[in-house]
Automatic annotation (TrEMBL):
InterPro entries: Aldolase_TIM (IPR013785), Lys_aminomutase/Glu_NH3_mut (IPR003739), rSAM (IPR007197), rSAM_sf (IPR058240). Keywords: 4Fe-4S, Iron, Iron-sulfur, Metal-binding, Pyridoxal phosphate, S-adenosyl-L-methionine. Its cofactor is pyridoxal 5'-phosphate. It comes from Umezawaea endophytica. GO terms for molecular function: 4 iron, 4 sulfur cluster binding; catalytic activity; metal ion binding. SUPFAM superfamilies: Radical SAM enzymes. This is Lysine 2,3-aminomutase.
Length: 426
């Protein structure tokens, strides 16, 4: 599935379009063919801004922004690539092959549909007592798609895999019934894909609930489509909306997704950051650490330093989830921790607000504090930053050292004490 989005409204185009686009920029027939095959399985979408300003076409296909946004044959396992490839030209066989391969890619990691979604309102996630995630129905797409996206299943048109709340009233009804909730995170997709007047309906509905003190908006628009924030009447309306939330005495935070420091370089992005920060909203940054894009401490230290200079607080370095092309983007936890530790050691104290590497796993957000030598052997030291059971937060626990482990499910408890801890919480 492939889309190219322009500066105004994203528009769907046939899968072959992305291959044509790569060919037009000098790629050989083999690469264009691989783009065509992989994009049958995983969703791809590229904004005009990303095409023109983020990708170094002279360095493609090894350019990190190309790897972030375009298909690569290794995103499918060799047998799966071959299965899809030989089905091209036979629509029924292709449909079956694509469905089979997608099902193998763990479309909903972390039990998101079964464990966190309130029965009464399926477009919300209430994983931690104080925080509710809101998935507006109209915000379930993005200006471009990150090829590592753990929400890729939402973009392939399978209604069963979508999380979407019906509207602001349904959200507000749930929030009113849950006085323990203080934080609302409006997410997607990307909520800034919505027009400001629609986003404002969700924001105003949250503002009308007294016990909601913090509104967060997760977005990668400043990277993929900075015009959304920097120019035009809808952008100005967004800035006025942010000012209004701040004036109401609520904490407003834009959770900005930057994968690579290059995304912050375009003038329009710098303008967008300055304007958004000027509203009084807090700006925080987060991204996963992934192979081929940002698995280098120098990238993170530069990115965090640039962010502090621009008024953005580094927040999370995530671990790539166990879904989609994890075999392509994922790193061993050992390496993710090395990247974090090396990067954080190079930056000033103000940039050390970044926490990581963090797995947003089924039982909660688990940070890998690194290897430790214990009487029972070498172990990963782990800690919950967030947990369904708040009493677990901050308690160290251990898993056996495994240099190949990439995710929570790969970890084995170190001893009996940790075994019961894992069993109670997974
Ligand atoms: S911006 Fe977020 S939701 Fe959208 S494709 Fe990237 S990771 Fe996925």
């Amino acid at each position: 599935m492939t889309t190219v989005s322009g500066d105004v409204a994203p528009s769907a185009v046939p899968g072959r379009r992305l291959a044509d686009l790569v060919r037009a920029r000098g790629a050989g027939a083999d690469l264009a063919h691989e783009v065509d095959v992989v994009s049958r399985v995983l969703p791809f979408k590229v904004s005009a801004h990303a095409l023109e300003n983020l990708i170094d076409w002279d360095a493609a296909p090894d350019d990190p922004m190309y790897r972030l946004l375009f298909p690569h044959r290794d995103m499918l396992l060799p047998a799966d690539f071959a299965l899809v490839e030989r089905s091209l030209g036979d629509p029924a066989a292709l449909r079956a092959a694509v469905a089979e391969v997608r099902a193998r890619l763990n479309p909903h990691p972390g039990d998101q549909l079964s464990r966190n979604v309130p029965k009464e309102q399926p477009g919300l996630q209430h994983k931690y007592a104080e925080t509710v995630l809101v998935f507006p129905k109209q915000g379930q797409t993005c200006h471009s798609y990150c090829a590592y996206c753990f929400r890729w299943a939402q973009f392939i048109g399978d209604a069963e895999l979508k999380l979407a709340v019906d509207g602001p009233d349904a959200m507000a009804d749930y929030l009113r019934a849950h006085p323990e909730v203080t934080d609302v995170l409006i997410t997607g997709g990307d909520p800034l894909i919505m027009k400001t007047d629609l986003l404002a309906r969700y924001v105003d509905a949250a503002l009308a609930v007294d016990h909601i003190r913090t509104i967060r908006i997760g977005t990668k628009a400043l990277s993929f489509h900075p015009a959304r924030v920097a120019v035009g009447p809808d952008a100005a309306d967004l800035l006025r909306l942010a000012e209004r939330v701040v004036a109401a005495g609520r904490h407003l935070a834009f959770m900005l997704h930057f994968s690579h420091p290059r995304e912050m370089e375009p003038e329009l992005t710098r303008t967008a950051i300055r304007l958004l920060g000027g509203t009084g909203a807090q700006l925080r940054s987060q991204a996963p650490v992934v192979r081929h894009v940002n698995d280098d401490p120098a990238i993170w230290s530069r990115m965090w330093t640039d962010q502090v200079n621009a008024g953005i607080h580094p927040y999370y370095m995530f671990v790539e989830r166990d879904t989609g092309a994890q075999h392509y983007f994922g790193l061993p936890l050992e390496r993710a921790h090395e990247v974090y530790r090396d990067a954080v050691s190079r930056v000033s104290g103000l940039a050390r607000t970044a926490r990581g590497p963090v797995m947003s796993a089924a039982p909660g957000k688990v940070v890998v504090d690194g290897p430790v030598k214990l009487p029972h052997g070498t172990a990963f030291a782990l800690r919950f930053l967030q947990a369904r059971d708040p009493s677990l937060v901050g308690r160290p626990f251990y898993a056996k050292w495994d240099p190949a482990a990439q995710w929570w499910d790969d970890l084995v408890p170190l001893d009996e004490h940790d075994r019961s801890f894992f069993e109670e919480n997974t």
